[in-house]
Amino acid sequence: MADSTINPTQMAQQLATAYTQGKQAQLKTQTTNAQNTSAALTKLQSALSNFRTALTGLSGKTSLTQQAATLSNTGVGTASADSTAQAGSYSFFVEQVASANQVAFQGLTAVSVVPIPGSINLSLADGTSFSVDIATADLDADGKVSPAELARAINSASNSKISATVMTVGGQTQMVLSAGQTGASSQITLDASNVNDPALKAALGAPQQLVAARDAIVWLGDQTTGVKMQQASNTFTAVQGVTMTFTKAMQAGDTPVTLTVTQDKDATAANVQNFVDAYNALEKTLDDLTRSGDAKNGVTAGAFVSDAGVLALRSHLTNALRQNYGGAKLFDLGVSADRNGTLSLDKTKLQTALAAKPDALDKVFGTAQSGLLTDTNKYLNQWLNSATGQIKRRQDSVQTLQKDLTTRQTALDDKFNLLYQRYLAQFSKLQSLQAQMSQTSSALSALDTAA
């Protein structure tokens, strides 16, 4: 005969579960959906933010059509160009490169601070001047000012206009003063008339020029017959959008160096490729979030497979690629999309298009007021605005839902526990009655046997 003994714990568990399992299954589904939605929103926000960062980087450029500048003789100097440079060729003759004045003072020795050793005055041809009190240069307070202490005092007072260095050459201590800038205005003058120590005064009064203070002299065209340009710096910006830094002077009679400004095809294509890569990364994320499920092949549907807002976002981005901006379109510039919406760039077609319409790229991608980059950025703000964007509003909604689900789960758990305790008490009583009945039955059976 089968054991019919009542198990109060098991039966209470089963009945309480049967009563709440419908609502528990519903809550579990809703909680899972809320968690998936929250994770999907975070993933979408990250993808949109990365895309916007890429757009911002491109829109920060004056032009996406990049220029390159080269000098025919790189031994003379270097050149670079920004997007404002115009294509062309220019000739330059470097007569003289700028240099910073450098002077040396030999035979320096330590001087006593007693009596007062006096002061020195230093100045540059540009009008900069300052004084150094020799006595205050005694940093170790030994009563003497060494050449090294004097150099440190000069460095402290000069505000980088003049730097002082002490070195030993041929057994003699020398202090070298170097101007902090190039050009004729970097000429250093040291006035030692207020120095009271005769030996120091004599040493500081006999400077040896190591490097002369010179301006850079560069001719646009041939030397003497071209246009003379003279300045303190070796970096010239006379040609719009071009920076030239000259490092070596040319010899009289040398052929002028040629500056050539042309379109930097690789850099221009890289700008477009950056957009293509950024868009494709976003497109891949949108693919994952809106994909259709396929139970037979184990493919789970995306969190936003039927979300009208996200589908509208994707549609807007796709349509923006096909817009006409100033008579030019992105797909006229070597960019194409496959059937899945993935973009690719044909550099050869891009260059062909720019050869026909040099300004087409900037018309499409635009300026701060209009164009693909600006229009897309404005639209993305509707999603990414930290206060009013759709991502923020949706995240707030999901968080509210999750709090409600947590509250409902707590209430259901309490309901389960209440039912469990009620059923447990009831079945425990029933178990007790069953035990009593079993004992009575056993007693009666024993009487019958005895009779």
UniProtKB/TrEMBL annotation:
InterPro entries, per the entry: EF_Hand_1_Ca_BS, FliD, FliD_C, FliD_N
Major localisation: secreted
Intracellular or extracellular location(s): Secreted; Bacterial flagellum
Signal peptide: none
Coiled coil ranges: none
Protein's job: Required for morphogenesis and for the elongation of the flagellar filament by facilitating polymerization of the flagellin monomers at the tip of growing filament. Forms a capping structure, which prevents flagellin subunits (transported through the central channel of the flagellum) from leaking out without polymerization at the distal end.
Oligomer status and interactors: Homopentamer.
Name this polypeptide is given: Flagellar hook-associated protein 2
